[in-house]
Amino acid sequence: MKDKGYLDKVIKSAIDDSIFNIKASRDIFNEAWNNKEKEMGKKKYFSIKNIRKEVLVPICCVLFAIVGIFTFSPVARTAAQEALKTIFLLDKSGNIIEKSEDEAVDDVTVGGFEITDKNKNEIEGKFGFEFNFPKKVGNFSITEIAGYPVSPVAMMTVKDLKYKDEENSLDKFRKAVGDDQIFNELSKDYKIIRNICESYEDSEKHKFFIYLSKFSEDSEMNSVKETTIDNIKCRVLEENRAKYERSENGDDVTKKPISVNKIYYMVWDYNGVSYRIYIGENSADIDVATQFAKDYIKILKQE
Predict the structure, then answer these.
(1) CB 203: neighbour CB atoms within 10 A?
(2) 11, 62 contact by CB (below 8 A)
(3) Is the terminal CB of the chain with fewer CB neighbours within 10 Å at N or C?
(4) Please, which residues have CB within 8 angstroms of residue 78's CB and are 6 or more apart in sequence?
(5) pTM score > 0.85 for this model?
(6) Are 240 and 259 within 8 A, CB to CB?
């Protein structure tokens, strides 16, 4: 018989000791998923790896054994403060530009903690909306690890955070995910949005991450498709994403990107809640995501 408490202990242990500062990309998700399958087949714990993130998205939890933890010695930290790095980023048109790390900004998602039956009502009160993730949505089911469905994760997106401030800021943002006092204080100086994430997959190994938040995020992404599902307007958004060389700490943004790829999301609003599906780089998955959205919205309307 399986130990029903084992998965919770693994997830809580990893989340409690980690700062989720990971940028989403299809390659990173696939690598993480492959690592998860390999490790779970051998032993009952996750191998936490150092990695640097690339955009907002989440990481729907320890599901993907990728955690961005940055550790620097006092000497290294002092040196970093004295010499500002040049960061290579993309502008709104997808062109590669150079900026100093005290000018370059990024959207960073930090988190978080597992949402359970015990803390669900409290989180709904703090985040300002009710939520429910059905076990099945059409042909999709909540992603499982070792036979157990992955619990949703609470996290927070920080908009336009300077690269040079990331290291010293992440811990306070992480605490603000579940602490209203810290959240309200930080809201005076930063644009921060609390999110809840869950992941689904089907038998054909399509994987979608769905994010819920109280407010629609201002998006600079290009809308490439619009459709109406049961009187709800849904949009498919396209964004340019840079792929960088990898260093021991993850993506090396001090070097020019190796390539620039497009990623896709589907978004809609319903009853004051913003829904966002991370689709990935494969535009062929847009039709699959659209069907997923139809099945999901049908369930929403029945609640």
Answers:
(1) 8
(2) yes
(3) N
(4) none
(5) no
(6) no
Q: Are strands 66-67 and 49-50 parallel, antiparallel or unpaired?
A: parallel
**Peptide bond before residue 280 is cis, with ω within 30 degrees of 0:** no
The amino acid sitting at 12 is: K
Share of the chain above pLDDT 90, in %: 50
Helix (H, G, I), strand (E, B) or coil at 209: strand
Contact indicator for 110, 156 with CB cutoff of 8 Å: yes
Tokens of 187: 């809201």
CA dist 127 and 113 (Å) reads 13
What lies within 8 Å, CB to CB, of 204 at 6+ separation is none
Q: What is the DSSP letter of 176?
A: H
Categorize the per-residue pLDDT at 78 as very low, low, confident or very high, splitting at 50, 70 and 90. very low
For the chain, the 3-state helix, strand and coil shares in percent, each to the nearest 5, are 30, 35, 35
d(CA 103, CA 242): 18
Q: How far apart are CA 213 and CA 156, in angstroms?
A: 9
Report the chain's C-alpha Rg in angstroms.
19
Torsion on CA atoms 162, 166, 168, 174, rounded to nearest 10: 120
Residue 17 and residue 47 in contact, taking contact as beta carbons nearer than 8 Å: no
Structure tokens at 87: 């960061």
Tokens of 18: 């980690």
DSSP 43-76: -SS---EE----SS----GGGG-EE------HHH
Residue 159 tokens read as: 């908009």
Answer whether 27's CB lies under 8 Å from 243's CB: yes
CB-based contacts of 260, cutoff 8 Å, min separation 6 = 90, 94, 96, 240, 241, 242, 243
Structural domain spans, the chain: 6-302
pLDDT in tens, 128-176: 999 999 999 999 999 999 888 999 999 999 988 888 888 788 889 999 9
